[in-house]
Description:
The protein is an alpha+beta fold.
Amino acid sequence: ATVELPAGLQVDEVKKQLNELLAETVLVKDLRSAPSDFHACYSAIGKRYRYVIWNNKKLPAERDGRVWHVKSRLDVEAMINACSVFEGEHDFASFATRQNFKQKMTTRVVSRAVMRRHPPLITFDICANGFLYKMVRNIVRVIVKVGEGRYTPDDLRRILEAKDRRASPGTAPASGLYLEKVYYSPNEMIQDAQELSVNG
């Protein structure tokens, strides 16, 4: 979000006062000064999303509605290896929604796609210069199919090359998806992708 502050107000002071006023469950982590022509949405050059899977027969009540609960045992190693299929510049038309299947620009550059296991949690992080609607959830669905033994990495490549949503049916639930970061500078995006590589 962007706001215009009255002259004389310091960013650190505004952050402190906001956190005093907000509910305990809401926290302002960072505030920065920006040029007058800055726009929170249109000035962004990329984003990072995280998708969270709970891979266990039982789901704790506090996790309900916050993860995708997959009860069947998944081959996480196969899922981790499949992530690299999506890295680089690709036409992601097969992972767009039906509504925007015919939109002209469906090519995106994925700088990093990483899956990690923290049993029973499985997390998937993906950085890109942009995303199609439901693209992350559609990607996660096919990666889980790899974990179920129903797809191979070669199947994922064929789906990408098809450039047709009908080649990749199914969408992961919205409950596991989180917007983790919005990038406003190339250096910030490169650094974050490198950190994901180190920690991945």
